[in-house]
Amino acid sequence: ATLYFIDHIGIADVKFTFILVPAILFVVLHLIKKNEEDQSIEYTELYGEYQALSQNYKIMEGMMEITPEILKDDNLDNLLQIILTKAIDVIPKAQTGSILIKEKNKMVYRAVVGYDINTLKKVDMQFEDMFQFKLGNLFEPTVIRDIRTFNENYLDPKKAKDLNDQDALIAKSVLTCAIKIHDEVYGFINLDNIEDVDAFHDKDKIYIKHLAQQIEMAVRNQMLVEDIYKLSKFDMLTGAYARQQHASMLKEVHANSKKQKTNYSICTIDINGLKAINDKYGHEKGDSYLIHFSKQVQSFIAKSDFLSRTGGDEF
User: Fold this and answer.
1) Nearest to 120 by CA among 166, 89, 183
2) Which end of the chain offers a freer environment for a tag, N or C, measured as fewer CB atoms within 10 Å?
3) CA end-to-end distance (rounded Å), the chain
4) Can you tell me the distance from the alpha carbon of 272 to that of 313, in angstroms, rounded to the nearest whole number?
């Protein structure tokens, strides 16, 4: 191209040409290189987005695998243990962990991986002792580096010592997030790495936030299943067993009695005067009467006995 250009211009312009053409080539090469760099940056960003989507899908898939467990098991502790084990499996660099549930103002360990849950349950942990509460950031995921130093600075010395004695402060880095039900803190999930203080980063906060949301859905589903289970098993007014459940349990008791050649007793109770109470004071007072009666009976019977409501005022 340069020779063609020279051939069609005067000799006086040759010097100018040999300055201009390399300059143009330099600009073109620079633009090509910049385009390649932009494409490389765009590729890196797209790959990062792909990784994030892939990780979120892995979390969602893991939670979907838990759904059948929710439907067949009404034990919340079993469910939380399954969820925690799956969380450690899907979150990169998570090695151990725990789930604490808020009971009034107390935080109770309900699931752990890599720790002894029975010894941890002995540690008196209050809601105010939680990482998020100390940092004033309840609902957003947080990374705690050097948990031992953090607890020495923020936690009551006795509680810090109790946790240390139970080997609960061995983690170098903790990824933690609140579990929220009905816009209130239901509990916390903590995922630990025991080797590297820089194990977790900002992208991991996105993962555990997504995981916590999946846990919230799972717990709400479990609560729904539990409500359905209770509706089928218990009388919702008095808390006594429902009529259908009574028939099933009585059949089982009778079969065991015949097999083991033991006796059992049935006491049928019909409350007198309930209609008069309903007529004079209204059905709400009549309901209160039934609830009070049921509570009184259940406070006196043995654990091996059961109280059932088989009709309106019949137990």
Assistant:
1) 166
2) N
3) 105
4) 8
